[in-house]
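Morning run. Coffee first, then this:
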Amino acid sequence: MIRMTHPLFPLDRDWLAGNLDQSATAPEQAPRGDHDLNPGTRTGSPLTAAAVLVPLVTYPDTTMVLMTRRTDHLANHPGQVSFPGGHIEPDDGSPEETAIRETEEETGIARNHVEVIGRLDDYETRTGFRVTPVVALLTPPFEVSPDTHEVAEVFEVPLAFLLDPANHQRHAREFEGTERQFFAMPYKQHFIWGATAGMLINLYEVLKE
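And here it is:
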């Protein structure tokens, strides 16, 4: 359980960065992924490298997590709640640069508001991506101007809600004739699930007391 007396409330930046440094995926460690809840389904095919930003918005009295809802016409994960991010391009140089660049492109939030503080474990998706989640602090006020081709909505969820195990659900759906389980964290009208919820479970495990 993460209590309101925890170093996240108010946010202790150094404590958070230290915990993230200790949790990074070791080279010999298998990454997390959709296969965690579905043993035997980890793909052996080459995966596309990608990165997302896990943006913690630091207000004086609370911390929020910024997320996006993807537009319905996109080829990958249409209509789903996600973190801003995308493919790692050859010119990016690092997952951190990819995450910051994609956040600028998708949400319009300028990079001078973004302070990278660490990474979560890499996450493999059944759709063929190996994603590096980059955790960053976002300092308001900042302007949001989403790319309407990719982003239907930009919204915030209280970090305390996402870190409360009472809100960590398991669901199942049939996919290609097989039942697949996944994490979900429904919040108001938003259904946060799949890889995004899996990364948030990782964040919870890193930060819980």
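DSSP finds four helices and eleven strands in the chain. Good start to the day.
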